[in-house]
Automatic annotation (TrEMBL):
<keyword id="KW-0677">Repeat</keyword>
<keyword id="KW-0853">WD repeat</keyword>
<dbReference type="Pfam" id="PF08953">
    <property type="entry name" value="DUF1899"/>
</dbReference>
<protein>
    <recommendedName>
        <fullName>Coronin</fullName>
    </recommendedName>
</protein>
<dbReference type="GO" id="GO:0003779">
    <property type="term" value="F:actin binding"/>
</dbReference>
<feature type="region of interest" description="Disordered">
    <location>
        <begin position="255"/>
        <end position="284"/>
    </location>
</feature>
<dbReference type="InterPro" id="IPR015943">
    <property type="entry name" value="WD40/YVTN_repeat-like_dom_sf"/>
</dbReference>
<dbReference type="InterPro" id="IPR015505">
    <property type="entry name" value="Coronin"/>
</dbReference>
<feature type="domain" description="DUF1899">
    <location>
        <begin position="3"/>
        <end position="64"/>
    </location>
</feature>
<keyword id="KW-0009">Actin-binding</keyword>
<dbReference type="InterPro" id="IPR015048">
    <property type="entry name" value="DUF1899"/>
</dbReference>
<keyword id="KW-0963">Cytoplasm</keyword>
<dbReference type="InterPro" id="IPR001680">
    <property type="entry name" value="WD40_rpt"/>
</dbReference>
<comment type="similarity">
    <text>Belongs to the WD repeat coronin family.</text>
</comment>
<comment type="function">
    <text>F-actin regulator involved in anterograde Golgi to endosome transport: upon ubiquitination via 'Lys-33'-linked ubiquitin chains by the BCR(KLHL20) E3 ubiquitin ligase complex, interacts with EPS15 and localizes to the trans-Golgi network, where it promotes actin polymerization, thereby facilitating post-Golgi trafficking. May play a role in the maintenance of the Golgi apparatus morphology.</text>
</comment>
<feature type="repeat" description="WD">
    <location>
        <begin position="73"/>
        <end position="107"/>
    </location>
</feature>
<dbReference type="InterPro" id="IPR036322">
    <property type="entry name" value="WD40_repeat_dom_sf"/>
</dbReference>
Length: 284
């Protein structure tokens, strides 16, 4: 009997949209990193291309004709490891890279020429930038990860406001809570940590997340109390765990998915108030 579980999704089949809605001419990259390879605002889509340091930019909506044309932005001297659009500005894009820099780009409206250089540069860091994310409620503030360093930046001043300390190994993820009060991090030392950056640079809480150190992900629900992590157990099976920050010593519940070499992305839409209850009911 095989010790590996067979995925219940093995026979699922995707249904593509109408061909008229397709975006053609995509040259997407496959470079591994802890960050995102595609992001969208309400106006633009940005994605990692097959050329290191270059992003593809495409309008979210077609501009008069049925085709949406991809343009390419050369933004770093090495591969782009993460990217994020500002929640306050559809055309403000932050990029992090293996070249150890964070750059902010003012993108034009569709049909106009892309910028030749960034509007702001943060860094260089001591090692490659792994993850970055804009603050959800304060304009011009973002968090970045490089090695064991997690920094909260004031982009306008081009200076870090604080550095979140105590990570024992490579930090794999850093995510703002939806109200922007807390930062959750996942780390190769298997610890899940919660920070209040305004109060102190050290973690206010920490616990072991997953038994395997491979590539953890994290997402907050619609409240400060619940968050969801993904990772691997000792059998290299993918796991999803639901956490309550008020009872942080162990997960509320967990779900084992399957055995796969690929990581599980953190759930993308956790903004609804009932998400934690639904996840617990599904996992339990």
């Amino acid at each position: 009997m095989s010790r590996f579980k067979v995925s219940k999704f093995r026979n699922t089949e995707a249904r593509p949209s109408r061909r008229e809605a397709w975006i053609s001419g995509i040259r997407a990259g496959t470079n591994p990193s802890c960050g995102n390879h595609i992001k969208s605002s309400c106006s633009l889509i940005a994605f990692n291309s097959d050329r290191p340091g270059m992003l593809g930019i495409v309008p979210l909506e077609s501009q008069g004709d049925d085709k949406r044309h991809v343009t390419y932005l050369g933004c770093h001297s090495d591969m782009v490891t993460d990217l994020d659009f500002s929640p306050f500005d559809d055309f403000l894009l932050a990029t992090g890279s293996a070249d150890r820099m964070v750059k902010l780009w003012r993108l034009p409206a569709p049909g106009q020429e892309l910028p030749l250089g960034p509007g702001l540069v943060l860094g260089p860091e001591d090692t490659q930038v792994e993850v970055l994310q804009f603050h959800p409620t304060v304009d011009g503030v973002l968090v970045s990860v490089a090695g064991t360093a997690v920094k909260v930046w004031d982009a306008a001043k081009q200076q870090p406001l604080t550095e979140l300390v105590a990570h024992g190994d490579l930090v794999q993820g850093a995510v703002w809570s939806q109200d922007g009060a807390l930062v959750g991090t996942t780390c190769k030392d298997k610890q899940l940590r919660i920070f209040d950056p305004r109060a102190k640079p050290k973690a206010s809480q920490s616990t072991q997340a997953h038994e395997n150190s491979k590539d953890g992900r994290l997402a907050w629900t619609g409240t400060q109390e619940h968050l969801v992590s993904t990772g691997f157990n000792q059998m290299r099976e993918r796991e999803v765990k639901l956490w309550d920050t008020r009872h942080f010593s162990s997960a509320l519940t967990s779900l084992t998915l399957d055995t796969s070499p690929g990581s599980s992305g953190a759930p993308g839409d956790l903004g609804r108030g009932g998400s934690a209850r639904k996840a617990q009911a599904h996992c339990g």
